[in-house]
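worker-3 :: picked Sulfotransferase family protein
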Amino acid sequence: MTATRVALDRALGEATALLPARPDAALAAAEAILRQAPGLPPAEVIACQALRQLGRPKAALSRLSALARRQPHAPVVLWELAQAASEAGDSRRAIDALESLTRQQPMVARGWFLLAAELRKAKRVQDGWRADLAGVQAASRDPELLDAAIAMNDARLDDCVALLTARLARSPDDPPALRLLGETRWRQGDMSAALELVQQAVDLAPGFDMARDFLIRLLMQTNRLGEALDHAERLSLSPVRSPGHDMIKASVLVRLGQQEQAGAIYLQLLAHHPEQPQVWQNLGHVLKTLGQQADAIHAYRKAVTYQPTMGEAWWSLANLKTVSLDAHDIAAMEQALLALDATAEKDRDDIFHLHFSLGKAFEDAKDHAASFRHYAAGNALRRAMILHDADGFSAEVAAAADVFTSAFIAQRGEGGCPAPDPIFIVGLPRSGSTLVEQILASHSQIEGTMELPDMMMIASRLQSRVEEGEFADFRAMVASLTPADRQRLGEEYIERTRIHRQTDRPYFIDKMPNNWQHVGLIHLILPQAKIVDARRHPIGCCLSGWKQHFARGQTFSYDLVEIGRYYRDYVALMAAFDRALPGRVHRVIYEHMVADTPGEVARLLAALGLPFEEGCLAFWRTERAVRTASSEQVRQPIFTDGVGQWKHYAEWLSPLITTLGSLVDNYPDVPGPDASRVEAVASRH
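worker-3 :: tokens ->
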């Protein structure tokens, strides 16, 4: 190598080093080189890069165009030409350069993403979408991203974060890296960071379908359903059609209560490909919710025809409650169990669903011993798959009872959102709450919605402030809420739930049963809201919950002792609140409602300050979507079959009965606070 070449290389290196911080100096250095070596391509590129950084893209574009005529296939020249043209507002020339570049280097993702952006500027939206998808495909073979993905899937989340953070420091506008880091943060439990990162990926590459799909799922998890639907609508326009896009849109519609629209999507999918058990099952869920029982049964049976081991479809069939599974069904489910591998993680969901289904089938057949064995097997397997800290939960409930005394509430004074709209129905699952909801939703002034998670999410956010050390304990956190804070929180709840209200009725029902844990918070932030406590005999309620597999939540329900403790905690907190604010909660005893429906309905409506309406007594005629396990039972007149049904299983229920203690003998009355505390402690030992 000649001395001249060595000097030129040194000068080029020095000019390049100046670019990030001193583009003016880099330009001067490049021009000096070009005086010595006119037209030297690397020096021209440095000069044009400097011009772009100095805000002179048109000057750079002129020089790069000339350079491209001399070197039409040089990737670095095409890349710089595209960026200069983009910054100069000349999308046509940018697109021409990028199309040439991506033909030469189809596995360089950055070229595709920049091409996509230019195509969108030129109103070529679908072409831009395809370019984004090509960029994602190219990135899927990037060694660095592959290493990060392997680390994430191996649960080496910190390693994955380190790899992606370093990459994004070099290139912050990297959609695949942002999406992958977002998923890693989600797996680490940082939902806020995950949402922000995945949103950035979608903003940079609107045609990045996988990122948008993941964003929709994150938005659904945080109950931002309106935004989720907007993104699902956008995803459905993808030039690459995928049934998955339709499925996720239908899932959002279901969560929004728009069952008919979701059902139409499932029917359309099945019209083209009828052999899809998952779609048949989802259609069954929609039809069940809409009260179309015969069609729901047909859909569920189609699902298990195409996939006999599909445990959730069998359970969905059994869970209709009004359907009896026969000997043929039992044989089919037992055969399905034999076909599954009890040691394989992928089969566990099907196995426990099948056990719950067989429990129901043998219950229908009056073989209660076999029924209990299968219920016990399903519960044991499900309990091993979830986390539930019974001691920790009891401590939280006790803390809430200690905080929300009459003196503490009086000290808070006025405050909260004065909206009278919400009617909260609280209690345990399988306590008759769906019956109460259906009765109330039959009133002309009340709209039934569904089990809304919004109050629980607000409460969880407040509790996190304690867990993060902002407050010493729960009492200090609640005491810190000013009247304005409480009003803002109440208004937030009203605004968050507005999307579920489809009528102009002045009142709406939130039937999330777990909200009994938050009656104190509800009172402070929504002082005009009504609270109804639906209560059922402790043994009957707990056994019914234990026999029920819930799609999500209710982690306490898979062990007889734990569900008994949960019932005790619930009764204790509601009793404490009754002492603090007598009459604030109206209690509906299920057995009383069954025995004297007109009288109990009249008392319920009077407690809510509403006139009696005969339609509430003919509640089963009210057409509305019902998503809970009691969806079919509330579409027929009240029946007494559920009262005392637990006695068929009495010989196996001693752990539950011992845990419940005096609550059984005193029901529906509640033992005094001292007795409750003593027995609660005893039940833990």
